[in-house]
Design a protein that fits this description.
CATH topology of the domain at 2-207: Immunoglobulin-like
Radius of gyration: 27 Å
Number of strands: 44
Shape: globular
Strand content: over 45%
CATH class of the domain at 2-207: Mainly Beta
Helix content: under 10%
Largest sheet: 24 strands, antiparallel, barrel
CATH architecture of the domain at 2-207: Sandwich
Structural class: mainly beta
């Protein structure tokens, strides 16, 4: 399919009204087909697409007819918010026309923006934290809604040629019907839906696009203060409890983005600061392995998929949260880009020495990551990674290679191998590898994988949940769809399991589960899991500071149930329950939440998780509770605020993180952030303050493009 872009002499006013003469002269592209509920059927509502351009922008005018326009869902004003809860459109561009990689511009019926870029036709390798600069406006009429978009040529990367062809695809969601339509059609056979760049149409007619100087400078300044609870030394040298240490906070810094060529971009950061980052969600660890907290810092999130290597949340060779947590970042940079079949990324950051704590000082270090991927055939990719954490005292280096072959519509084979060299540790057991084959069609799935992680595999810039293991894992599934039903949408039944042995061949764990999932035509979902687990402990495991599970063999089964209503409704609810055996004892766990959207300007969310555990061990009867409250406020698409309030019984502390963001010019923000912790439990000393911490900062950024 070919869609032609039409050259124009005067840019349109981006106001959600296609009233310029040239829009009427363009013959629209139509013929959207359903992916759901009936794959390949004609869309229930007509959609028209028009594309124009000049030297500086590519323009899209989309008309979405709707015979019940009063039912169009529009509730999200917050940029990068949950736009999928509304009627929305996605414009996807494969700018290099390589049928692998591309940009996504997601917009709802309020004109709210979300955007991403992706690698290798993969949702898992998409970066939704990339924020492109472009203009959009939407307007709801009595016959439907209109969307007008201008994407500057400086926002996207494309080949350095006079005449360019790109891949393009359009997606529309009619949310109240749970209907998804595409142009061109991307069928259910392709499980990556809008990321399936090999199925895009061809956008032609683009000539003489201007790139500018490709230089963006973003200085920032920060002012604030913090008060931390602790001890205070008074006259005479006496130390008393309940003291509060206060300090002023002030800093300046600079971020620079430089388009070295049409294919490569450099990002430079000086005196890096992350004061505006949202707080982590509270987690209570009832396992003997490390918890995973996702990265939330903008500098690391941008272009993150290019640096992915390994198994996510299990064995990642590069996990950016290792940088700048214990030692502040002085500065550094990143270069990313694509040259023909090669994708290349290099990141280098320097951290400073930390203040001495306890017996020793935490030395700063150089943090280096190099990543390369080569598209050796149409759907084959081979790559390599190298990481190095090094200072004057020690080093930790990792080298690895990976390969992926995609075939049929959505099936693939992939694998990786990595080796660690560490100055402080020996050379035994410091390698890891993985291989997996997955066969996927619209009706069936089946797969098998093998993982081998040495007992000393410890990439200092990575994340490894479990070492000293050899694991075999298999899964099968069936996924019938009920396209002619008036109430049922889809049923998925998955059965899988694994067996884990140590490097010595001794059995450590086994796991088997049956996982059904049912989706109604309304979008409501219910799922369940029946699980059997075997665990062998070779040493005591402290599930709580005062509760130890002794060595031995343990068998336990449990049942998990979850229900969720359609999240696009004004009021949506979610509930979970887990009942069963747990380390020769029992567990009862319940959770629930609701979200109420008063309007696009105000939303509330309240949730709680409760676990009651009884174990045949001293101090083995205990319970945990987490309560989370979210408030969203939006005055406009440029001014919004979020509050995250959390309480957990483990710490007995109420934590609050409040963030206000004003996008005063595109790409530039004014952040006001408050972060507090308040102890509501019994104080060990009456003189202790209940305030664990109080922090308030104002951060101003300004983006200047040249």
């Amino acid at each position: 399919m070919v869609i032609e872009a039409h050259r124009i002499d005067r840019p349109p006013v981006i106001d959600g009204v296609l009233d310029e003469d040239f829009w009427q002269d363009i013959v629209p592209s139509t013929g959207f087909l359903q992916r759901t509920p009936v794959d390949g059927a004609a869309a229930s509502e007509r959609t028209e697409v028009r594309v124009a351009y000049d030297a500086n922008n590519i323009y899209f005018g989309l008309t979405m007819y709707d015979r019940e326009s009063e039912l169009i869902r529009r509730s999200i004003l917050h940029r990068e918010g949950r736009i999928d809860q509304d009627d929305r459109v996605i414009i996807a561009l494969d700018t290099y026309h390589d049928k692998r990689n591309g940009y996504i511009f997601e917009l709802n019926s309020l004109g709210t923006q979300g955007d991403a870029w992706f690698n290798d036709e993969s949702l898992e390798r998409s970066d939704w934290n990339w924020e492109g600069i472009y203009r959009s406006a939407a307007r709801v009429e009595e016959w439907g809604w209109v969307l007008e978009v201008a994407i500057p040529t400086t926002t996207i990367r494309f080949p350095g040629a006079e005449e360019i062809e790109m891949g393009v695809a359009f997606y529309r969601s009619i949310r109240r019907k749970n209907e998804d339509v595409y142009l061109p059609h991307i069928s259910q056979d392709y499980r990556q839906h809008i990321y399936q760049a090999s199925q895009y149409a061809t956008l032609t007619g683009l000539r003489g696009l201007r790139r500018g100087n490709d230089l963006e400078v973003k200085p920032w300044g920060l002012l604030g203060g913090e008060a931390l609870a602790g001890e205070t030394t008074i006259a005479g040298g006496e130390t008393i409890a309940g003291g509060v240490t206060t300090s002023a906070v002030g800093a300046v810094g600079l971020d620079v983005k430089w388009g070295i060529t049409s294919n490569f971009t450099a990002d430079i950061t000086i005196n890096t600061d992350f004061a505006q980052v949202e707080a982590d969600n509270v987690q209570i660890n009832l396992t003997r392995f490390n918890l995973f907290f996702p990265e939330k810092r903008e500098f690391f999130l941008e272009r993150a998929p290019l640096f992915q290597f390994g198994n996510r949340r299990e064995a990642e060779i590069f996990f950016s949260r290792r940088i700048g947590i214990d030692n502040e970042i002085i500065g550094g940079g990143r270069v990313t880009g694509q040259q023909g079949p090669w994708s290349i990324g290099v990141l280098d950051l320097q951290t400073q020495d930390a203040e001495p704590e306890g017996e020793g000082e935490r030395k700063g270090a150089n943090n280096f990551v190099g990543r390369v991927r080569n598209d050796i055939r149409v759907r084959s990719t081979v790559g390599a990674i190298f990481t190095n954490l090094q200072n004057s005292q020690t080093y930790n280096r990792v080298a690895g290679i990976d390969y992926e072959q995609r075939f049929f519509t959505s099936s693939f084979v992939r694998g990786w191998f990595a080796q660690v060299w560490d100055k402080e540790e020996g050379t035994e057991g410091n390698a890891a590898g993985f291989v997996e084959a997955q066969f996927q069609s619209r009706l069936y799935t089946a797969g098998v994988s093998y993982t081998d992680i040495g007992e000393n595999f410890n990439p200092a810039l990575g994340f490894v949940r479990r070492r000293d293991m050899v694991r075999w894992e298999a899964n099968v599934g069936v996924h019938p769809r009920f396209e002619q039903s008036g109430w049922a949408r889809r049923l998925s039944i998955n059965f899988g399991g694994n067996e884990i042995k140590g490097q010595d061949g001794v059995l450590q764990s086994q796991f088997v589960n049956l996982h059904p999932n049912f989706v109604w035509e309304s979008g409501d979902t219910v799922l369940g899991t029946i699980s059997y687990r075997f665990e062998r402990l070779f040493e005591p495991f402290f599930i709580r500071p005062d509760a130890s599970i002794p060595p031995g063999d343990y068998n336990f089964t449990d049942v998990f149930l979850q229900g969720r209503t359609n999240e696009s409704r004004r009021l949506s609810v979610h509930g979970t329950a887990r009942l069963g055996e747990f380390w020769n004892g029992t567990i009862r766990a319940y959770g629930g939440s609701f979200t109420w959207k008063h309007s696009e300007h105000l939303s509330f969310g309240l949730g709680g998780d409760f676990q009651d555990i009884s174990l045949p061990t001293p101090s083995g009867d205990f319970s945990t509770t987490i309560i989370t409250h979210r408030i969203g406020l939006a005055a406009s698409r440029d001014l919004f605020a979020n509050a995250l309030i959390q309480y957990d019984t483990d710490s007995d502390v109420v934590q609050a993180n409040i963030r206000i963001d004003w996008i005063h010019t595109p790409g530039s923000d004014l952040f006001i952030v408050f972060d507090t912790g308040y102890n509501i439990g019994v104080l060990a000393d009456p003189r202790d303050t209940r305030w664990a911490n109080r922090t308030g900062v104002i951060k101003l950024t300004y983006l200047k493009a040249f």
